[in-house]
């Protein structure tokens, strides 16, 4: 059965009944085939946009949240990279340093001049009087003559004469040769400090000088500008006329075992001795110029001694004295020149 109607656009309108139902499946299959064919073709961008619609692009965050602070992502990445590179380089360099073999060169043996210098300086360590420091390198020497200057007849300005150097095999302390020895040591340091340092003896020789200058400062009132006396000698060696009085020549014993009185010989008119002592303190002040306070103390003491030598003229070893027997002096003019020269350099 078929029905015909009028097409509004001028054509016939045919309506099929149930007899055409068998062909509907065929048409459905044909449509599916068309759909698969359509899907198998590659769609252009316009068609894809119809099907998928607009896509949203995710933007990378510009900042990194570290919890306590927020930093730029770029800075964060650069920082992490720099730390990683630095750690790598540090580890690499450490690995190289640890694995490269090291060659240790033994120090050359000291030359004969260095050995001679060390033995000469050791002589001063062996001659030290007083309470010895722990670093004194003569093991068989100990503290000695700790009562020097504490006996009767000593000036009130001089209360302690412990320290200094013994003169020779005996235990007498003479200021005159001791001052000259200290001046020569100071002069050698001033001229050859680099050589002393190269030999490893600079600190040692400066310690030797200071041990002597500390003692010389005790032998007079070093804080005063003017003095009228000083201690010229500690101990006695007079054995003339068969004297049996215990002293440093009658009793040949170790300084550590001395138990007899040691007299102090003062001097109130001794230009040669005072000028020699001034030279010792003035030259040492140059050696210790890196220690401003001590250097100025030495300069002040030297100035006081030199003034004393000029004001109270006389020889320290007049005829008949013990000093004339051991270290006689014939005049004081050469000591004026010697002391004045070192005063000039020091001031």
TrEMBL record:
<comment type="similarity">
    <text>Belongs to the glycosyl hydrolase 9 (cellulase E) family.</text>
</comment>
<feature type="domain" description="Glycoside hydrolase family 9">
    <location>
        <begin position="113"/>
        <end position="347"/>
    </location>
</feature>
<dbReference type="InterPro" id="IPR012341">
    <property type="entry name" value="6hp_glycosidase-like_sf"/>
</dbReference>
<keyword id="KW-0812">Transmembrane</keyword>
<keyword id="KW-0624">Polysaccharide degradation</keyword>
<feature type="transmembrane region" description="Helical">
    <location>
        <begin position="75"/>
        <end position="97"/>
    </location>
</feature>
<keyword id="KW-0378">Hydrolase</keyword>
<dbReference type="InterPro" id="IPR008928">
    <property type="entry name" value="6-hairpin_glycosidase_sf"/>
</dbReference>
<protein>
    <recommendedName>
        <fullName>cellulase</fullName>
        <ecNumber>3.2.1.4</ecNumber>
    </recommendedName>
</protein>
<keyword id="KW-0136">Cellulose degradation</keyword>
<dbReference type="Pfam" id="PF00759">
    <property type="entry name" value="Glyco_hydro_9"/>
</dbReference>
<feature type="region of interest" description="Disordered">
    <location>
        <begin position="1"/>
        <end position="27"/>
    </location>
</feature>
<keyword id="KW-0119">Carbohydrate metabolism</keyword>
<keyword id="KW-0326">Glycosidase</keyword>
<keyword id="KW-0472">Membrane</keyword>
<keyword id="KW-1133">Transmembrane helix</keyword>
<dbReference type="InterPro" id="IPR001701">
    <property type="entry name" value="Glyco_hydro_9"/>
</dbReference>
